Give the backbone structure.
Amino acid sequence: MSKSVLDSVSELFQPQLPTWACEFTPRHFVLAGVDSKRRRILSKTATPVSAGAVTGSLSETNLADSPGMLELVRSTVADAALKGSEIGVVIPDDAARIAFLSAENLPSGREERETFIRWKLKKSMPFDVDSAQVAFKVTGGHAGATRDNATDLLVTLSPRAVIDEYVELLERANLHAGFVIPSTLATLNLLHAPAEDVLFVKIAPGCISTTVFLKDRLKFYRRVPDSAIYDAVYPTIMYYQDKLMGSGNDGP
């Protein structure tokens, strides 16, 4: 049974993550591993993939050439001398949606919280939320709330078929997906957000994502396909200033 996108987003910050991870991009299959103490990189490689073989999508096949990708994964894993079978999996941002929610009275149980999230996002997602893979993280109290128990949530969703496509490919290569995560969220694990406001820009083939941290709390995410960097960044800065009431003198 495949795990959800970040089966819990908070699991990313736990110490027992797989020591190996891979990323599927439109241009490369990336594989890297660290030693058991997580202090030294054992191997890292980026194997080119054929055009159109990997395409992040919420509604269509992500891996157009599944047999070819399986052979590529197997050969890359063999060359890297990967030990064990558990691996972290990074998928294209276009294969998932990231959303932010606020709740006045968030249920205490995980199942009840997930039901609440599905209900809130049911009309705003271009896929069936009831059957989607859902992961979430409580990011803190809501600054503009009228009640003390108002809560902010970071939510990641993806159609179950999309996640299964990546997980099942790896299973055919005798690998187990320990967790699955969109590319930008994976990259943000490398960032130690300072106390001041920050704009984080990630540039990838065919996609630019912008993320805003307000006083070290993730508050906004935007993904723009095939855009000039100015066109991708400027609306985020305007949103930061006008909607998030950012006070940075030169933007976030």
Summary: Confidence is low (pLDDT under 50) at residues 6-15.
